[in-house]
Amino acid sequence: MTEHPEPLDVATLQRRLAEFAAARNWQPFHTPKNLVAALSVEASELVEIFQWLTPEESARVMDDPETAHRVTDEVADVLAYLLQLCEVLGIDPLTALDAKIDRNERRFPAP
């Protein structure tokens, strides 16, 4: 794990992902279409871990260190592709989520 002199935040992670891709000349492949496809694949790999588990087993998935590691890696992959997609499309993911929660609160008021 790399030591970080600055706190982790979305912008820092997006910059690190962009630097990683640039160092490997991957930017031409990081089109919205390709990033969405990669995001879907990684989300499916996360689903695969849970696919045949009972609800009770799925609630305990992090109890097994090997499975917990797999889940954590897939969550990281999903987030990485989502952050890269947001960067390419100019979407601030935190602002988008905040606005979506606002809309959902209006759409589904608490009883």
Kindly provide the radius of gyration, computed on alpha-carbon positions and rounded to a whole number of angstroms.
17 Å
Shape: globular
* Low-pLDDT segments, ≥5 res: none
Strand elements, count:
0
As a percent range, the share of strand residues is under 5%
Largest sheet: none
Helix and strand element order: HHHHH
**What is the mean pLDDT?**
95
Count the helices. How many?
5
Distance between the termini: 45 Å
Helix content: over 70%
* Helix/strand class: mainly alpha
Task: List the SSEs and their pairings.
Layout lengths: L9 H14 L8 H19 L4 H5 L5 H25 L3 H15 L4
Please explain how this structure is put together.
This protein has helices at residues 10-23, 32-50, 55-59, 65-89, 93-107. The protein is mainly alpha-helical and 111 residues long. 5% of the residues are buried. α1 crosses α4 and α2 packs antiparallel against α4 (65-89). The model has no long low-confidence stretch (mean pLDDT 95).
Summarize the structure.
By secondary structure, this protein is mainly α. The chain contains 5 helices and no strands.
Provide key terms for this protein:
111 residues; mainly alpha; 5 helices
